[in-house]
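Hi R.,

Here's the chain you asked about this morning:
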Amino acid sequence: MIVHRIRTASPHERLFLIEIQRRAALANTGDRDLLTAHPELIDTPAEFFAAGNVLVAECDGVVIGFATLILREDGDAELEGLFVEPSHWRQGVGRALAEAIATRAVALGARTLYVVGNPHAEGFYARAGFRLDGVIETQFGNNLLLERDLTAR
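And the predicted structure, written out as tokens:
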């Protein structure tokens, strides 16, 4: 799979991207039970779009995935969400989105990019340049805190 373009999402794409998020989340057996019990978790807030921190991946003009970035109070950034259409998994789309988010974070002055991930996603994040920083407890159980140093770019 070749991602032809990564671009900033438009606010009018929000509902379409939420549907990608829903399909991706429910196709992942590690997430399905939680999201079936808490469908309200499948959302991408409108304010993310207003800040220009939602990036989409396109192939042949079709959006096949997206990622969101939030800035932290300490000046660093967090990869808040990354979702790819299940039919495009394991084709480099997620990794391309993670790299684009890292580039955006650097442009905004971040030195470290964090992500809170499920244990079943650790391999993906390791391949995308993240390292395990610890385990944190969230309202839905223990998750991994991973970080990526952006200063060595």
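The beta strands are 5-8, 54-59, 62-71, 77-84, 112-117, 131-138, 141-149.

Let me know if you need anything else.
M.
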